[in-house]
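name: query_chain
kind: protein
chains: 1
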Amino acid sequence: MSDSLRTYHAVKGRVCQMLPESGPYLTANVSLMMTGLVRSRSVQQKDIAGEVPLRTQDRSFEQRQRRFLTNERVEVDALYAPFIRPFLQACQGHMIPIILDGSAAGYHCQMLMAAIGYQHRALPLAWLVRKGQKGHFPATDHLEVTKRAAQLVPEDTDVVLLGDGEFGNVPLARDATLRNWCFVFRVACNDTVWVDGEQITLSEFRVQPDDVLWLENVLWTGEQFGPVNVVVTWNEDEQAAMYLVTNFDLHQEALYWYDRRFWIEPMFRDEKSMGFNLQTSHLRDPKRMARLLLIVCLAYLWILFLGTLAVLSGAIRLISRADRRDCSLFSYGLRWLRRLLRLDLHIPVRFCPYRSLHLRPAGGVG
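structure:
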């Protein structure tokens, strides 16, 4: 049996278990596209077609991919939910960080991603795609992707919403407050706050390296939203002051959680240059790109599981240096899969934390 066919059978067996009510059209296409994506490490339709175990012409499967990506009955959120829920359930009892960020995807497309911070990395939670190469998403899109992420979070779960300067806006902060979520957003230096009835521009508050200024119970912007708290701290990379708006009671909490915002950057790197080369997609239509992201995110979760399994089992010494860890879990997962195929070993496909590893959610203790 070919490596491609073995991979497909392993993936399809698990996909069918996770989507028991979905028909063979959907489970077969998801499994085939995941197989081709992981084996080719490319989102290009011709590359995926070249790695699937089908006797038909490659161009036939390219057309099949296009039909899948244009199929309005392929509901991304409903299909993705069963795969990401085990990770959210594993975080119950801990505060869950949800990280917002945007990135280029496809041809003249931008994706807005909400990801759950987990084990020093981010896992895709919900996303939307809009036309455009650069620029910020409007606040309405921020609210939309946050709403879709919130629908996946278990009830009575503590959440902190994190975002860089693009997300420092009143509508998003108000929405988080109504959900009883904590939030930490970076804001621009020309934003204003109201202190004792006086409107002051944030740039007037200056700090030196290693200094932190804490503005408590202030009102934010001309809308006078609040009360909120503001952290003014020194950004070593930019050699300038950085301003954070939060509803945490302590500046230490706000800084602790804001550091977790950067966990989303390795995820984008794994999905792009270090993994599936998402940046090379020629898709122009946002809806098609959103469905392609479904395949990319499912493959990403699976490869992370394989990387975790390689570390847990000690197999990491067979694929990398034993004295230090040079690669991400994602890279270890890709290497471990290649070894399993080369040695004709069982290919595990799971979409959950490996419980025996006692993975600690971001910010957890123990």
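note: Strands lie at 96-104, 109-118, 121-131, 159-163, 182-187, 192-195, 198-201, 212-220, 225-235, 240-246.
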